Amino acid sequence: MKHRSKVGITIFIMAIVAAAIAAGCASTPLRTEASTSGIRAAEELGAADVPQASLHLNLARESLEKARVLAAQDKKEQAASMLLRAEADAELAIALSHEDSERSEALAAVARVRKLQQDSR
Amino acid sequence: MKVKSILVIVACAGLLASCATTAPIELVNAREAYRQASTGPAVQVAPAQLHEAQQALAIAEQSFQKNPKSYQTQDLAYVAHRKAQLAQASASIAQKQASQAQARRDYQDAQSKIIAETKTDLDQTRTALAASERSGEVSAERLSSAQDARIAADRQTAQAQEALAASTAQQLASEQEARKAAEKRAADAQAALAKLATVREEARGMVITLSGSVLFATNQSTLLPDAQLRLNKVADALLVNNQRNLIIEGHADSSGDAGYNLDLSLRRANTVRSYLVGRGYQASRIRAYGFGERNPVADNASAEGRANNRRVEIVVEHETIATNK
User: Fold this and answer.
1) B11 — contact with chain A (CB < 8 Å)?
2) Number of domains in chain A
3) B92 contacts in A (CB within 8 Å)?
4) What pLDDT sits at residue B242?
5) Is there a contact between B79 and A99 if contact means CB atoms under 8 Å apart?
């Protein structure tokens, strides 16, 4: 009789703990700061005007939206995993925007040199 | 026993099948992207980003090993793919920045070269200008010498002109003096003629009238001795200007035969002509005519009149052209 009581209590405590954990998980908000700030930064850099950057910017937005949907469906882990996609695409969009601007500046710099050399002849 | 063996075989087959699970497309893409990134310039210029891509791919591979078909594996592979692409983009950015830096250095080098060339050109121009200025000074000396020479030449010319002018003036003065002397002689000659004969100016010239009775005996055409002396003086006066033409006219009065008088007047005119030629007057400039009694200057009714009509006139023509009839 004593043995069965101890087991029951143990199981009950574990159930309460599990419920508490489940409840805690269910109330944790989706952490979208990284992805949203990445997307915002890409937008400010003009990623929408660079074809490849615009593609990944859109992918980042789609992934962020999917993550919110999954979070609403209480699929937190899957939502969090989806946010990793959004952050990666946003980061790549930023890099591609930088690459485009660096390419333009490099071309302009080379053009200045050629013009100077031609003018000096 | 056989049933156990069959179950074991089936279990192993299942294990083998699970080990050969196809990787999700995200992982395939990630592997390829990393392969490209790890063989490109990212190795040199973006090693940090390439390392992150390698770590992401390793995590994805681990997830794939644990849960090949889970969403975690797909998402981690997706992220690994993006990390590899990010490494490539970072490498490209680094290359563009290096190109910009090189272009800036080239620009500065080109500017420096231009400045150096400009400075060299400026130095050369200054040198040439200095040389030109020195050349200008030499030219100024030459110009000054040329000017001095010109001034000396002008002075010489002026002196020559002065000398010429002086000479001309002297010559002119001499000529004037000569002309005056000639005019004086002519005037003296005319004055002398006036003493020897009647002299008057007519349209045909200066007419010197010599009385026939002074020159000739009656009905004669030979000069009297005193007439020769008088004709000598006349000749001397005429010879002052012997370039003038002379016309010797013989005239008679109305006594006697007209034909005889005509012949006598002609012979007397010729006599005077011959005498003047003998005194040195050019023969081509003297003509002789006889007019007889046709041109009386006085009334033949009186003796005085007839004496006046008996004359020889020497007409000194104004023109110097010799005319020979």
Assistant:
1) no
2) 2
3) 99, 102-103
4) 85
5) no
Cβ of B93 within 8 Å of Cβ of A99? The answer is: yes
pLDDT of residue B15: 55
Q: How confident is the model at residue B30 (pLDDT cuts 50, 70, 90)?
A: very high
- Which class is domain B184-316? alpha beta
Distance CA A74, CA A30 (A): 10
Task: Supply the range of the domain harboring residue A110.
Answer: 32-119
Query: How would you classify residue B292: left for phi > 0, otherwise alpha for psi between -120 and 50, otherwise beta?
Result: left
Q: How far apart are CA B10 and CA B19, in angstroms?
A: 14
Amino acid B324: pLDDT: 43
- Three-state DSSP at B28 gives helix
At A119 the pLDDT is: 80
Do A63 and A19 have their domain in common?
no
Are A93 and A71 found together in one domain?
yes
Please name the residue ranges forming H helices in B212-287.
212-215, 225-239, 258-279
For residue B68, which phi and psi values (nearest 5 degrees)?
Answer: -60, -35
Per-residue pLDDT tens over the stretch B10-24: 555 555 555 557 999
Strand-pairing partners, residue B249, are B289, B313
Average pLDDT of the segment spanning B270-294 = 93
Distant-in-sequence, close-in-space partners of A77: CB < 8 Å, separation ≥ 6: B72
The rounded distance, in Å, linking the Cα atoms of A42 and A60 is 10
pLDDT for residue A116: 86
